[in-house]
Amino acid sequence: MSTAFVLDHVTILTGDRAGTTINDAAIVVDTQGKIEYAGPRKDMTARVGYRYYDGGNRFVTPGLINAHAHLFSDGKPLPAFMTSEKAENLVAKFMHSKPGELLLNKRTKTNVLTQMNSGVTTIRSLGDARYEAVRVRDAIERGDYLGPRVYPSGPLLAMPGGHGAPQIALCSTTPAEAAQQVRDNLAAGSTAIKIAATGGVTDAREIGQAGTPEMPEEQMRAICETAHEAGIIVAAHAQSAEGIAMALRAGVDTIEHGASMNDEIVGLFKDNPNSLRGSSALIPTLQACLPLVKLDPKVTGINEIVRANAEMIYEEMLAGIRDALEHDIMIGMGTDSALTHVTHYNTWREMDYVQRYGGLTAAHALHAATQANAQLLAIDNITGSLEADKDADLVVLDTNPLQAGFRAFTDPYLVATRGHVLQQPQVKRFDKLDEKLDTF
Ligand SMILES: [Zn+2]
Fold it and tell me: In the chain, where are the structural domains located?
């Protein structure tokens, strides 16, 4: 139960593609945390016994949905000696120990709360160390503390020696083994499934490794079939046309990061018989590469191989967005938080980047993070827009992000998550990192 309230004197930004706004509006929320009314003030009937918040002519958006997060780290760049394969393996070993597990629980909790306090009311975690995000989700749903909605994937599914392996992945070499790992993840409480279809940037040991296809199509198909049987969609990390085509043919529902598209890929995005709901969507995550490309390697501390792969994948992601726009393919929003330079409070930067570098309109960028993400995660019946009967997931901002920029999300005036109100929530920032990110 939450307190019923009226949020009065606001402009509603609906989160549709066109950027529709409702001026001189109000939102009414019931004790179940559901929206009773959202629309013009003049059509609102009087409410008695509701808590009253004066919006002071501020702007309200639907709560943000981060469809591609990781939660095991805070996103602060690691010192160079920590990024060697050896160091990564040592860290992974520790994370899989009992004290490591406790540390991960704590970090994951901190990070989901940071996202919530910056306006993210729903998180899909795509690649956890183990099941720490499941435990945090369970604690939130039990009511141990207030938190956002979390859809955790548990460890991602990869090839031996492939992207994410062995640190944050379960590895398989046959379709049967891969299908079993899906069942294991679901039995452990996961409500999302993630595949590493191709190599990645941060753990590539060679130039060009980032987009190289890794998992065979039939293995990915076994994963998709098993997940779809349970009603769960599948996300695939895929950073080349070849890898994307294989993943889409296998039935993957969301392509993470993306690359330039050929006719087959365009066709499969729009009409994908092997996907759960008949079509697939693109989630670009520009933040995964942009800082590594825009900042001097002396500043980021990355080596030549990571830098070259980041540049290549960044260009491919931009090409993927361009093709998605041209062919009207659904674009969602994810930050790839926890990766180097991607903090949990900088979700707004992803919307800023897809607008400034990806060519989306501001309205489309907000749409990707709200209504589109809700649709592609099939949670648009409960969140993603400000309409009667949906959960009251919303953010109140001092300035209009569609006109004054997404930086408006750095200091929300108010966040509501499933009807629970947080007034002027604060987050811990990394000022030095933000200064660097503000240079481009
Ligand atoms: Zn990721």
Answer: 5-62+384-423, 64-376
Q: Ligand 1: distance of its center to the CA of 337 in Å?
A: 8
Amino acid type, 372: A
Q: Can you tell me the distance from the alpha carbon of 236 to that of 213, in angstroms, rounded to the nearest whole number?
A: 11
Topology match between the domains 5-62+384-423 and 64-376: no
Model confidence over 135-174: pLDDT tens digits?
Answer: 999 999 999 999 999 999 999 999 999 999 888 899 999 9
How far does residue 200's CA lie from ligand 1's centre (Å)? 9
- In angstroms, the CA 373 to CA 384 distance is 7
Determine the Cα angle at 337 with ends 194 and 85, to 5°: 75
Q: What's the CA-to-centroid distance between 68 and ligand 1, angstroms?
A: 6
Distance 7 CA to ligand 1 centre (A): 36
Domain 5-62+384-423 coded CATH 2.70.98.40: no
**pLDDT tens digits for range 254-310:** 999 999 999 999 999 999 999 999 999 999 999 999 999 999 998 898 889 999 999
Interval between CA 238 and ligand 1 midpoint (Å): 10
Element (H, E) at 88: helix 85-95
Average pLDDT over residues 208-231: 95
CATH topology of domain 64-376: TIM Barrel (3.20.20)
